[in-house]
Each structure stands twice: as structure tokens, then as C-alpha cells.
Amino acid sequence: MKLLRVDDLEKARQKLLDCALSWEAPVEEIGLENACGRILAQTILAREELPGFYRSTVDGYAVKAADTSGAGESIPAFLKMAGDIQMGQPSEVSLSAGQCAYVPTGGMLPEGADAVVMVEYSERLGQEVAVYAPAAPGQGVVRPDEDIRPGDAVACRGTCLRPQEIGALAAAGICSVPVYKPFRVTLISTGDELVAPADSPKPGQVRDVNRYALAALARRNGFAVVRAVTLPDVEPLLEQTVRQSLLDSDLIAVSGGSSQGEQDKTHAVLDRVGAPGVFTHGLALKPGKPTILGLDSASNTLLAGLPGHPVSAMMVFDLLFCWLTRRKTGQPEPPCFPAMLTANVPASPGKTTCQMVKLRQADEGYLAEPVYGKSGLITTLTRADGYLMIERNREGLAGGTQVLVHPFSGGDFYG
Known about the structure:
With 415 residues, the chain is of the alpha/beta class. Helices cover 18% and strands 31% of the residues. It has helices spanning 9-19, 163-171, 210-220, 235-245, 266-273, 310-329, 379-382; strands at residues 27-31, 44-45, 55-56, 60-63, 77-84, 99-103, 115-118, 122-125, 128-131, 141-142, 153-155, 176-180, 184-190, 194-195, 206-207, 224-231, 251-255, 276-281, 285-286, 292-296, 301-306, 337-341, 345-346, 352-362, 365-370, 386-390, 396-397, 402-407. Helix 3 packs parallel to helix 6 and helix 4 packs across helix 5 (266-273).
């Protein structure tokens, strides 16, 4: 029998990284219209400058700035109209001293112009324009390479493409991008007490939370959920499902049955199915101690036994597997929010403690209010914005302590 010990979070993460050395996400090329929310697999460099011509940022009159020097409400500068610039057309006008030309927002500046006076500070008088404010060189103008220069990074590897990146790529003439294919996960929720959300639980039964919560968490963090099933505590059935899932999954996560009671079959099944099998049985983490980690090297599939309690299961999936996919695809870690703790928080001896908190905006910044609840209560998470982490060697944190609050993966804070 293998001798297994409880790992701390850092050790467990390192083991997962070691197992996932060849666990690379395949790449596919997709059109921009389907790329929002996908993870960019390589940095995209601009091939040309943008906007590519001197462009007006306002509706107004293109001028030589020197011609407007000293202009004011009482003594305007009078300039002769040299023409109107049409939107989307190259300028055929060339300004001489004392001349101006109308240009719409986004229009191309005529040759000889170095500034644009807003229409609000001018008045058209037949073939002349009165300018009531001086313009500085470059005012109201975007240079040809002011937005993007050739060789600039339009979007970097590991970026989760948002609408703004899609727009920048389109502006740069990029029609398709290489993105990572999602890692594939099978989620198995186990327990004789579990019933479907549509069912009315009998005494001793509960509705299955983990199957749906973990699937949502996985999808929100870029996984492709191959299957999500609920199984009774029948060891042969669990083993059959795990073996079948080795054929099409990068990760198999079984929630429930990971502690050391009579019905806990997960360890035995994962160790029997995988080779080398289970390498971690227990995390020095609260919540999340009854966690199992393993590997089947033949199929290159990671194996996990997650706690049955929803809060614990989601925290472990977030801290281990959402973290792992970010590392493997070059994504940055979500930024932490500095906040002041509003109350004393105890820690669990010998474990890294994750304390759920609610963020509240105050004059001096964020306040972090502890959210208490047992790990079997899913509403503990719905009432929290994120969590803070207390190191293993700390007895707790005192109210008034400055802390860093970690957002839930794929989530946002609203202050």
C-alpha cells in the first residue's frame, strides 16, 4: 500500500504542474466573430500603423496652428475656406497660409494642416471662417501611428479576449486568431443521498449542488465540460464511469467519497484506474482537507477527488485546477484587492485557511467583512465576493488588519 501524506497547497500545485508538463492545450484558429471569451495562444503583432493617416478627433476646421495665434472672442482670426473634406475619402485639399478646410470627426487632415479647431470655437461666414480660440500644433489630431505602430502587440498570449481586444484586432486587420482549445473535464457527483434539482428530497436526501456548481465554475474558467453526472455510492459504477472518461477527458473530478468513511470509494477507484494513481490524499487547507489528487499517465489524465461539501469542492477546484489552466495557457492571476478586515478571524492550526469575505466600499477603501458558514452551506459563497488566505503558521487575523482579497476565478467585484 502506498504511503501518502497530506500536502500543503503549494506542494499540491507543484505536483500538478509536474504531472502536467506535457498537458498542453491544443490550439485552433478561429474567426474574430467567435473569439470573445477565448484565450489567445500567441501574441498578435500589428503589421501596419493605425490609423494610418492624420485624422481629426473632432468636427471642425483644419488649420495651420500659427494662423490662429492670438485669436479670441473679441479679435478672431479670419481664414479662407479651401474646401470640405469628405468622410472616408482621401483629402484632395492642400492648405496655404491663411486657409482652412472643414473636416468631420475621423476625417483625414488636408496637407499643410497641423491642428483642428472645433466648430464650437468657430463661425462660418460664407467663404471665410472666424476662429475664436487659438489652436496648438497637434490639437484635435491623431498621428498616423498614434494608436498602433508596426510590431506593437495588439493582444498578448494568455489574454482572455474581451470585446475591446476583438475591436483592436479588427482595426489591425486581423480576421482570425489562434486560441487554446478548452481543457476537457468530466465531473462526477457521488452520493446515495443526492437527487436532481427538480425532485423533492425525502428525509435524509439533498439536491445535487456540486454537479451544477462545478460545471458552471469550470465553464466560466474556460473548461469544456465533456460530461457531468450524478452517481450513487456504487464502486463498480464509479469505476466504469471513470474508465470511460479517460478516453476523452484531461481532468476527471469526483466530488464526494474522498474522506475516510465506509462509503468513501473514490480513493480506491482512482488509485486502481490510474497509473501511477493517487499521489496526494488530503490538503492542509480549510475548507478542502479531504482532497485526492492522482494521474493516469497512459491517457495523460489528471484525477481528482473533491470534498462533497459544495463550498469545499468549489474552493479546491478554483485553487488547483482553475489555477493550473491559467499557468498552462499564460493567463495572469486575477488581481487581489487590498482591504481592511472588519473583525477578528480565527485560523485552523496546521492548515492554510480560506476565509470568505464580503467587500464593502468605504471612504478609505475596501472593507472586508467575514462571511461565516459551514462548508455544506452553498449560500456561504453567494454572500461572498472573494476570500482571504491565512498562512498555516498564523493563529488568525485581528480586525483592522490590512489583507488581500482574492476574487473567485472568472468573477468580478462590484464596489
